Amino acid sequence: MTDELKEQAAMFAVGLLEEQEREAFLSAVGVDRELAALLDEYHATMAVVALAPELREPPASLRDVILAQATGSIAATVDERISEPVVLSDEFAVTPPVELSVLDDLPVADRTVPTVTPVPSRRRALPQTLPWLVAASLALACGVLFFRVIALQEENVRIAAEKGVEYLRIALLESQAASLPGISARVAWNPGSGSGIIETAALPDQGAEKTYQLWVFEKDNPVPVSAGVFDPVANPRIIFRPEREVENAVTFAVSIEVAGGRPQPEGEVVLAGTLVGG
Amino acid sequence: MLGLGSQDPGALASLYDRYGRIVFTLAARILSDDRESEEVTQDVFLAVWKNPGAYRPDRASPLTWLAGITRNKCIDRMRKAGRRLPLHFDANEGSDVVADERVADPYEAVAVSDLSGHVRECMERLPEPQREAVEFAYFECLSTDQIADRFALPQATIKSRIRLAMDKLRRCLRHKCEE
User: Fold this and answer.
1) Distance from CA of B24 to the nearest CA of A (A)
2) What is the pTM of this model?
3) CB within 8 Å: B134 and A33
4) Phi then psi for A239, rounded to 5 degrees?
5) Stretches in chain A below the pLDDT threshold 70
6) What's the rounded Cα separation, in Å, for the pair A169 and A77?
């Protein structure tokens, strides 16, 4: 084995062997066992150089995300959503809810996934003297809802076409409230569709006076977007869609608000978490 | 790696528990960005899960293989970001002709924590110019001419330094691992 080949083996192992030298070098490796053994040792040596920096722990949530994606629980969510009729919230006067399997360990009876209830907008009452305006508004609303239904159906077709496992990103929401240390939630967010699913765990009932409200924070925007109010005791898994289109969602939070919700959070934020992977 | 072929999530969990820190640390060292490093870590283990047959135990240890995938994925990201980068590293690339007679990875049986200490010690023992040449190549993913520019030296000198460093490293590591 020549010194030149030894040098090429070292350069190959660090990925620096020039393209024009690679083919000849690999041919030489194929017939020279000593060279092949040296190359293996260089490769092994370079691999352990990865251990030179002080080892750092990745976020604990990363393990869960990888295992969830690998085992297909997230994929199943998408596929089942695709195969069933789209679920629309009450504002769309809807089809029967779809069955999802985000948590396979839940009994089948619990798998009906409702949608978050949107917070009603504060509108001024229409003048009683202008009934035609009411009719016009209703017609307009029906038109808007019609197009939103169409858009959602088209979106489902698009997701089906793209089989979008990689669309879904995960945020693990941890307790922010000292009085509720055991609560948590997981959000599977689909940036392509601008919708997601939240699964909650151990959130206590807030009674008739208060409610949980979900918020989405966009990158570099401190003002959150409401994703509606929900009852986690009745439905621990809920489909949601923010009340307006969200660009580059990064963080999700849950606050406790007065019944019916608020345009902006005023109550205590009890859960928060950022999408894994930025 | 056993169990990945039969899609056993427990095997993936074990692999992650053993190598997740290493993959993440390597990605973070190369990319200098924790979020991107999380994404790369995710990509690496999902790639392994989706294609466990790509691993050839007769050619590389899991560490060698995973480090190679990690580095490649980092290089892909940097290339997409417009950085000029060297060729891909491929831990599995080589000849099939002698694969059956290749020796086992000399470091595979050593505990990661011990090996990590040995590597740091051996790296510190290298003359500084040689250590820097290896670090520029491996962690900064610079090409030979880029490293030569950094040192204001001919490329031949850089190649020579890298080879000398590799030889010293492997001898030092062997000695440490056999102690």
Assistant:
1) 6
2) 0.52
3) no
4) -80, 140
5) 72-167, 277-278
6) 12
